[in-house]
Design brief:
612 residues, alpha+beta, 3 domains, 10 strands, 11% strand
Length: 612
């Protein structure tokens, strides 16, 4: 009975990859080799009158129930009874060593620690006096084999990237020096004399006085920011070298992977503000813009639903298991709402330049849009915190499963999950959410669901606001930079209030699965900081041209669709010889990402830009 219960409790756990053995001998061997991000724990029971078990709890599992890890019977024939298990090292674990049966046990000791990759650990349970009363039982924790440094490969990769960036920046700096610019002219004069061809003398002062080309009004910082988001998206989609911070958080919390899509949504809003404003100034009719944005939306929805969301490896197409939401579907719908709102609300800016409200004109000019966004925010709050969900408390934002002491196992996502299942059907939403393994959830939940799309629109609206700041305050670059930083501070303050500066326990925790309000304000804060930094370096100071990130940023649709369809073919990926190391995984993911950046550069040289 205990063995059956143990296997069922560990079947879907990421913190424990279960390998169980009981041996009445002095040695013990694991049933399978350790994999990446794993460590082995061996339990040695030296008690002759008590069965001993280990319960575990992950730090990232909020208010979760302890789960059974392994158990060992009382020792026989004066030899300890041993049991072993393989545990995940992604997050710190708490072990409780207990004596007794399944529902009748007493705690012997408790231990909280972060375990290292490929480490081997032992827990010895013994009695100090030999009478084996509960007061005399104790535990001893031993590190049998030290873990490896799993972060060494990424440190080496980071150093190489920084070194290459330094070499590139140094070459650009040297090229821009006046002495290096005169040197090719001297070589040219020498070569012309050698072939006895009379040419008028070249005066370097005349070259220096030559008028510079007119600066392009296109924001290179915006294309670079888009390229950064897209490059990071390709890298994390390929696996991010197997590092946990390049994967999505199990439920609440924030990782690098969680910021990628909000950045992309932010840039959509900024691009809409700049492009639609330019087209309206050129005299493009609003009906033409409406046709254009509708066509783009339809194409994005079709690509997401039929070209990326489903592949031949899934077998014959079946509508019963086709997923309706998706990344491109959300991007398409978000683009449609923001572009339609901008088409209807864009106004001439000159008449507001000298009014008394000029310092805040980027907000007051577009007051209808702000009212619309406030209505959307009110809708999200009402649905999230007031909608009755069968079997769940109102306003529930948890993962369900074993979280919240197992009280609401079927309430994953609260109102957001309930609305998706009601509108789209259980078979048409994502069935493998990031919380499934850690929280042992059984309900499907889609991170690109209906309710979260409301805040996707809000995220794009923040980007729209950034674009309007550029339009209104240009060419005063310092004013633009100040406005960006003010927005970053305001959004960061709102995030601090909503979350109480904690991962769990705030009013509204940061949650990428739900696209919660605090997640949007946090991602918006980072977006304004990054955009202001790039705007200062690239467009104001012109210290950097955005290379090489600007190339995928100018061909984003091609790179995203291409890496989604061809990402698992050579040369973007290959069969790895050393699956149990971060080094080859990181190399593969970096090479695959670099190839797409190179492809984007070649397309840029050929002046090919995929547009829809």
């Amino acid at each position: 009975m205990m063995v059956v219960f143990l296997k069922e409790s560990l079947r879907h756990s990421p913190d424990v990859s279960f390998t169980f053995t009981v041996m009445c001998s002095r040695g013990i061997s694991l049933a399978k080799e350790l994999q990446i991000d794993q460590a082995s724990v061996v339990l040695h029971n030296t008690l002759s009158q008590h069965n001993v078990s280990i319960l575990y709890l992950s730090d990232y599992c909020y208010k979760c129930l302890y789960q059974l890890l392994m158990w060992a019977d009382a020792q026989q024939e004066d030899y300890p009874t041993n049991a072993s298990a393989i545990v995940s090292v992604l997050f710190p674990l708490t072990f409780r060593v207990v004596a007794g049966e399944e529902h009748n046990y007493s705690t012997i000791c408790s231990h909280h620690d972060s375990y290292g990759e490929f480490g081997h650990y032992s827990i010895w349970v013994h009695s100090a006096s030999g009478n084996e009363s509960m007061r005399d039982l104790s535990c001893r924790y031993i590190t049998d084999q030290a873990p490896v440094n799993s972060y060494l490969p990424i440190a080496v990769a980071f150093a190489i990237i920084v070194g290459l960036a330094f070499i590139y920046a140094n070459n650009v700096y040297c090229y821009r020096l006046k002495c290096t610019q005169r040197y090719p002219l001297r070589l040219l004069e020498t070569s012309t004399l050698s072939v006895s061809v009379e040419l008028p003398p070249v005066n370097s002062a005349d070259v220096e006085a030559k008028p510079a080309r007119p600066k392009s009004r296109r924001l290179r910082s915006l294309d670079t920011f888009r390229g950064l988001a897209l490059t990071a998206m390709v890298f994390v989609n390929y696996g991010g070298g197997g590092y946990w911070f390049f994967e999505h958080a199990p439920w609440n919390g924030l990782t690098v992977a969680d910021l990628v899509m909000p950045w992309f949504v932010f840039i959509i809003g900024t691009s809409v503000a700049l492009s639609f404003g330019a087209m309206l100034r050129r005299g493009v009719h609003r009906l033409q813009l409406l046709r254009k944005l509708t066509w783009r939306t339809v194409i994005l929805l079709l690509i997401g639903a039929f070209y990326i969301n489903y592949s031949p490896t899934d077998g014959p197409f079946s509508w019963e298991r086709a997923r309706i939401p998706g990344v491109l579907q959300r991007l398409g719908f978000t683009y449609f709402v923001i572009a339609l709102m901008e088409t209807c609300a864009t106004k001439e800016l000159k008449q507001y330049m000298d009014c008394i409200w000029a310092p805040v004109r980027d907000i007051l000019i577009y007051w209808p849009e702000w009212i619309f966004m406030l209505l959307l925010e009110t809708l999200w709050l009402c649905l999230t915190f007031l909608l009755p969900v069968p079997g769940c408390p109102r306003g529930y934002l948890g993962a369900g499963g074993i979280g919240d002491n197992g009280k609401f196992p079927n309430c994953t996502g609260g109102a957001a999950g309930y609305i998706d299942k009601w509108l789209l059907g259980v078979g048409h939403i994502y069935s493998q959410p990031t919380c499934k393994q850690l929280y042992h959830t059984t309900e499907p939940f889609d991170p690109e669901g209906v309710l979260g799309t409301i805040y996707s629109v809000l995220m794009a609206f923040m980007g729209l606001q950034a674009g309007k700041i550029v339009l209104i305050y240009r060419p005063n670059n310092l004013s633009i930079l100040k406005r960006f930083l003010i927005w970053a501070v305001v959004l960061g303050f709102i995030s601090a209030v909503l979350t109480k500066c904690e991962r769990e326990g705030g009013f509204i925790p940061v949650n990428k699965n739900l696209w919660s309000l605090s997640f949007i304000t946090t991602a918006g804060c980072f977006s304004f900081i990054l955009l202001s930094l790039m705007y200062c370096i690239i467009d104001m100071k012109e210290w950097w041209g955005g290379e090489p990130l600007i190339f995928p940023g100018m061909n984003s649709i091609f790179v995203y669709v291409g890496h989604s369809v061809l990402g698992w073919y050579f040369p973007f990926s290959w069969e790895m010889k050393h699956m149990n190391t971060h080094a080859e995984r990181l190399l593969q993911d970096l090479v695959g990402t670099a190839i797409w950046v190179l492809i984007a550069y070649m397309l840029y040289r050929k002046k090919f830009f995929l547009k829809i």
